[in-house]
Amino acid sequence: MTGSLTIAGLGPGDTALITPEVSTALAEATDVLGYAAYVARVGPREGLRLHPSDNRMELQRAGEALKLAAEGRNVVVVSSGDPGVFAMAAAVFEALENSPELRDLPIRVLPGVTAMLAAAARAGAPLGHDFCAINLSDNLKPWTVIEKRLRLAAEADFAIAIYNPRSTSRPDGFARALDILEDAGCADRTTIFARAVTTPKERIEMMPLRDARPEMADMTTLVIVGNSATRRIGRWVYAPRRAS
Amino acid sequence: MTGSLTIAGLGPGDTALITPEVSTALAEATDVLGYAAYVARVGPREGLRLHPSDNRMELQRAGEALKLAAEGRNVVVVSSGDPGVFAMAAAVFEALENSPELRDLPIRVLPGVTAMLAAAARAGAPLGHDFCAINLSDNLKPWTVIEKRLRLAAEADFAIAIYNPRSTSRPDGFARALDILEDAGCADRTTIFARAVTTPKERIEMMPLRDARPEMADMTTLVIVGNSATRRIGRWVYAPRRAS
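Predict the joint structure of the above. Result:
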């Protein structure tokens, strides 16, 4: 019996944002692996084994998923949002590179609505012009790289989506990021804090970057810094198509 | 009677990638507006008026949608992919800015799976690390801005998703973009051409940037240029989580 491995994105939170493709994959799975908070979003049913694990266990989880698939199970690894954006897909391919004997395993990546798209939708259209996405977690890259990218993104006048701005283990990075962007000439730029977007705890706040405070972000927040042409009209914010 | 305006993303092509939220909005619509090729993806039914229009009519279409909503219709404006990424949401807010009397109209933006996420999923995980998205259409911005952003994106070592690389009205821009990226030191970078992704005409090709040719892209192609750390394993390509 041949198993399979599917890496699926659950979207930002609301079940109405899970694609039918992902729902079908979950209905056919024998095993679901992922960070506990995401596995909890998958309903239990007979014949389905749930394998929740801790955050930061990505590579180990990916190896376990490959092993189960090689044993003939139909495995789904779940991520929040899109699995290819700062999530499990890269970890699975890293594990696959370490296990050459498994390279013929049937693997699929199923895309999802990543947090910045849901956050942008709630705010209006701040990503309607060229933009970038930067993960502020420095667990896996040096802060010098993050700082360089923030400065170049400001110079390029990209709208900037900031993933993982702040966690209890990294309380200071986001404050530095705000300082760097202000120093790079972004003080006037409209900044959006989208917390727990599409969930009952959703909260959207907007202000010029100079008024943004680090404590406005937590682990569930996606931050978007608009480009220099971004406009506010009433409760909406958008990047004009004819920007800069 | 109060109308409403919903700006919805249909995803990259496969109906299994349309979110239930968008399907519900389409089921409740009285009017659907959009570029003809996207409106054609919405099934006709009794009580639903379809308003297909030409490409490049974005602002006029947005104004018409606002007008219909103000008349009490339940209007859905459809985009391919995500409506907030190089699509109709920005045009609607631009039209709204021009019509202050309509600012209290109920408006919603419903996110979707944008092309780069579907393309990345087919290829593996090339957007697993920091990345940017650049629209190569120069209808709405000067080429100097595009060139500057490409150079800064290369310097920042972002993976680069290129939307609208080439059309019959703009045959040369993509060739210039490839030259700029090669000149900026990206010749070795893995480059992915994802054509008509998730449709029956899908075709995925990968090669080092130096071997990429402008004619490999057409209007339905999304191009991803990997970052400098991007790796290929068998048929997969991914950006390591510990990049550069």
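The CA atoms of residues 6 and 17 of chain A lie 18 Å apart.
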